[in-house]
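Posting this for the archive.
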Amino acid sequence: MRIDRGTMKNYPCRHHNSPGNGAYRQYGSITGEMHQQRGTVLLIVLVALTLLFSLVAAGLERAMLQTHMVDNQLQHQLALAAAESAATSASIWLSHQTQRPLAAAGNTQGLWTSTTLAALAPGQPWWQNVDAAWWQANAHTLTGAPEAAQPPRYVIEERLVQLLEPPTPTTTPVTVVVYRITAHGNGTTPRSEAQVQRYYTKTYE
């Protein structure tokens, strides 16, 4: 029996495809791009939130400012209304006087001579140089304004007194007095103040 002995040949082995260095590099590149995109998106979101918060804060500030302005206007209107009511009350009181009332400091109706009040602030309007304590101590106080921080008050000054000579000896002489009414009012807070002035002419026989 003859056995042929052939020569053995080496054949290259074939392996299954496996990721090499190039594949790993490609995977790492994709991962890096994803992280970069996420960082960019996060930055955009943070910028958008910052702008949004800035707009909201600006809107709140404007709303608070408008509310403050409206409140100040309301307080001024309340103080002005209180001062007007005090001035009207002083005019009504003068209209009811049949004889000339005595003007003096400490008068229960707040009736003063102009020289006495002018001495409070020489060369300046006296009503701009007195405080709330002075009004409380020297002016006539009204009642019936519970919502006001201070009740409305007024002061009456004799600005001019003129004696008119009678046309005939049998005619009664007439005295004409010009009064200045200065009224002070408050809103619901002590800092909200308003003052009004009126002139009132009264004739006494």
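The mean pLDDT is 80. Residues 41-204 form one domain.
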